[in-house]
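hey so i finally got around to running the thing on that chain from the lab meeting. sorry it took forever, my laptop kept dying and i had to restart like 3 times. anyway pasting the input first so we r on the same page abt which one it is
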Amino acid sequence: MFERVQRIRDMDRGLHRAKAKHQYLLRGHVFCGYCGSPLVGSFLNRRFRYYHCRGTYPTATREKICHARYIRADYLEDNVWVKVREVLENPAIVLASIKEQLEIGKGCQAESLDKEILKLKRRMKSYDLQEKRLVQLFRYAELDQNNVLDEISRLKKERERDKELLEDYLGTRERIATLKQAEIGLAAYCEQLKSNLDAAPFEDRRDILDMLAIKVSATPESLEINGVIPLELAEIKTTDEQPYLLTTGQTSA
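ok and heres what got predicted. didnt touch it at all, straight out
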């Protein structure tokens, strides 16, 4: 929550405080795909709304830094809103994509992840036994001390490597489980947001863009949209002793 507020404040700092004469849905959410400057609204020929890059004109502290052309506001806002609706209407698709990214990052599916965890746990148990055998061989047989110490050092490094890998795999499995638990709460959250999206007034649409921390990178040729699904808002009923399980953190979508 704190981090989302800071992002919104940072976006506001980059904008003039003058009151806009016309409504621009993406004000504070859209930036130039060429130079990263904010896109601001312009009303041309007393008929058409546009967004244009602030870097295309000089200021008191810098020269002109960009040559981006104007972008029709209707075109830009309609395309962004269509994508936002797709996310709100299909939250399961977003969760499935996140789960896939987690699994790809570990190079395995959920089923093989469990097998790898079991294999690592068994291997961890074997290290103590191997070290005891080395100490016994050193004590009762005439083995070179340096060789034994080198072998013990090798086992220690392998143990630390496997321990880190096991913790990583366990964390991935926990995050996948959290996504499954969050799916119900996230679906309800999105259901509330998507109701009457077509008829949503301007301020409601602005609120939705703020809640999802939408950030748009736009040029006349391309459009990239990023946002945040606040999974910490998902609440799942579990037991009488622990009535709600709150998911923590936020997930890029």
